[in-house]
Design brief:
about 180 residues; mainly alpha
Amino acid sequence: MARKDESPLVKRLLGLAIAQGVLAILFGVLALFLPGLTVALLLLFFGIFVLVWGIVSLIMSLSRINSHGFWWLELVFSLLAIGLAVYVLRNPVDTAAFFVVVIGLTFLVRGLIDLIQGLFNKETEGDDRTFRIIVGALGLVAGIIALLHPVSAGVAIVWIVGLYAVLYGSLIIAFTFKAQESLK
């Protein structure tokens, strides 16, 4: 139970948790109903982001040739970033397979951490324990599926990510409302 002086901060954090849950659900719905568009936009935005990042870094490194001792390090990074961006934008299928592996590993590790905390952390009690066990199990299942079928999963991994996001967002909102009730 939160003390009275912590209550405003806790209430703000709970509000942020609800916002996170809503955003997760919106992303999940988008991924479930427009999986191809979700992957294509993700790769396009990532490629453009890295390209702009590389160009800006290139300009900055060249402008620091005489004034900064490690200008060449930023130059190397910027050229690598530009090369990566060109590769991502020209080879979206290979890049998508790599992203599926990264997503699978992320789900697997996060799921394992949540499950271990839910099962073995003595400080975790009640609803928080239940939440961590459920989300951890979901993460493990999603991660295993993604890693077992990274290339052939294609659109299916986006559905898995979407379903995970909807379930995760729903659980965050449900447990946050329950936590808010306990503060009253």
